[in-house]
TrEMBL record:
This is 6-phospho-beta-glucosidase. GO terms for molecular function: beta-glucosidase activity. The lineage of its organism: Bacteria, Bacillati, Bacillota, Bacilli, Bacillales. It comes from Amphibacillus marinus. Coiled coil: none annotated. Belongs to the glycosyl hydrolase 1 family. The keyword Hydrolase applies. The active site is at E367 (nucleophile). The keyword Hydrolase applies. GO terms for cellular component: cytosol.
Length: 478
């Protein structure tokens, strides 16, 4: 069923877990100025506001508690752990010439601890954590200056961690440049009312990030040719709302808007359909002569992607999205979570097949999970049946995709320990197998408690996906 070396794991992001947002010489990142999460952004603020609670500033204090947390994850039995390097820990402003040694030492300790426990690090270079100074000084990824800054940063971390990290990802959910551009591309388009101008900004920033991604691949391979460097997109599938051909074709075009990014990062060139997008929207992108050669040489080894839900699209409807993917019409055939996210495990099999057919490259499911509320019973246990059912159904769908012929490297549940929600800024929208005692207002002891799903996921890992029966854990017999 699952390959012998399959990488069962868990995933977090630095800005949602570490806290210590100015400790050890760290500078502010774009995530540090969001008090309420990506879904609730109105006008973007580029400065901290007084008397405002910023959940990411403390998060779950992973910065100070990572050793005990990794001990718990080792007990869980995970084979890999995806996290990000906070760019502003290494270059606090982003444009310095000399890196911050304290930040480098922190990740030395983190990766060494993972290796000590036999856990393979999977490291995202940029997970919605662009240094804030690069936005206020240069305008974010609209400015080619950031290509040089990112190039310097990636050279430093590839060289520093060449003996500790094998699996890398360049930009987290790069295709979210369209739906949450401030986090994904460090640009503020909220004041732009002209759609052509907005699209111009998004695609120019995207081009600059794509070049930076390709240069990062070249940097990583130069340091260690064995490095496996992937791209990362949000790729929950889009269904047409009806069999109306207009619904079908517009859904296809919308899907292609996301796959544009993986087309470039995996194939090394702009797809032909992009010519029409440029022409019809009168885009005037600044593309330097060397850029196309860099894109061609710096292709990614695998496609990492997040999957949470499917969406339902009707022609002509307003296109919206959040950290879970695109938002569409309500699907009457699917149940939803409390936060309105459809639960659609078959869609995971669907997208794995779609991506395999398109690219014939290895896939890595680096985010999948469900946010629910946890409740303690009288025995101070959390019997999280909803989470276990979701895990079972999606692992089953992944197994079917492997039978279909998909080459899947691994699966990292988002997130194995409760962290701050990137979408809503909440703590009480919980994903973890490990409960963290912290509430939305920042109160709590930060104590860690294993949920029933902890033992269930451990069983799945120990049996390499063969035993997915969770009835014993629901019946409090674990």
């Amino acid at each position: 069923m699952f390959p012998k070396e399959f990488l069962w794991g868990g995933a977090i992001a630095a800005n949602q877990a570490e806290g210590a947002y100015l400790e050890g010489g760290k500078g502010l990142s774009i995530a540090d100025v969001l008090p309420v999460g990506a879904q609730r952004i109105g006008k973007v603020s580029l400065a901290l506001e007084k008397d405002t609670h910023y959940p990411s500033h403390d998060a779950i204090d992973f910065y100070h508690r990572f050793e005990e947390d990794i001990d718990l994850l080792a007990e869980l039995g995970i084979k890999c752990f995806r996290t990000s390097i906070a760019w502003s820990r290494i270059f606090p402003k982003g444009d310095e010439l000399i890196p911050n040694e304290a930040g480098l030492l922190f990740y030395d300790r983190l990766f060494n601890k993972l290796k000590e426990k036999g856990i393979e690090p999977v490291v995202t270079l940029s997970h919605f954590e662009t240094p804030l100074h690069l936005v206020t000084e240069y305008g974010g990824w609209l400015n080619r200056k950031l290509i040089d800054c990112f190039d310097r940063y990636t050279k430093v971390v590839f060289d520093r961690y060449k003996n500790q990290v094998k699996y890398w990802l360049t930009f987290n959910e790069i295709n979210h440049a369209h739906t949450i551009p401030f986090l994904a591309a460090a640009i503020d388009v909220t004041a732009i009312t002209n759609e052509r101008e907005k699209l111009q900004s998004i695609y120019q920033a995207s081009h600059n990030m794509l070049v930076a991604s390709a240069k990062a691949v070249l940097n990583g391979k130069a340091v260690n040719p064995a490095n496996q460097i992937g791209c990362m997109l949000s790729l929950s599938p889009i269904y047409p709302a009806t069999c109306n051909p207009a619904d079908v074709f517009e859904s296809y075009q919308l899907r292609r808007r996301s796959l544009f990014y993986s087309d470039v990062q995996l194939r090394g060139e702009y797809p032909k359909y992009f010519d029409r997008i440029i022409k019809e929207n009168q885009l005037a992108l600044v593309i330097e002569p060397a850029d196309l050669a860099i894109l061609s040489r710096g292709t990614c080894d695998y496609l990492g992607f997040s999957f949470y839900r499917s969406s339902l699209h009707e022609a002509g409807m307003k296109i919206l999205g959040n950290t879970g993917g695109l938002l569409g019409k309500k699907n009457p055939y699917l149940e939803e979570t409390e936060w309105g996210w459809p639960i659609d495990p078959l869609a995971l099999r669907y997208v794995c097949n779609e991506l395999t057919d398109r690219y014939q490259k290895p896939l890595f499911i680096v985010e999948n999970g469900v946010g629910v509320r946890d409740e303690f019973n009288e025995q101070r246990q959390i019997i999280d049946k909803e989470r276990m059912r979701y895990l079972n159904d999606h692992v089953a769908a992944m197994a079917e995709a492997i039978k279909d012929g998909s080459d899947i490297l691994g699966y990292t549940w988002w997130g194995p320990i409760d962290i701050v929600s990137a979408g809503t800024g909440e703590m009480e929208k919980r994903y973890g197998f490990i409960h963290v005692d912290k509430l939305n207002d920042g109160s709590g002891s930060l104590s860690r408690t294993k949920k029933a799903s902890f033992n269930y996921y451990r069983q799945i890992i120990q049996t390499n996906g063969l035993n997915r029966d969770f009835s014993v854990f629901v019946n409090n017999e674990s």
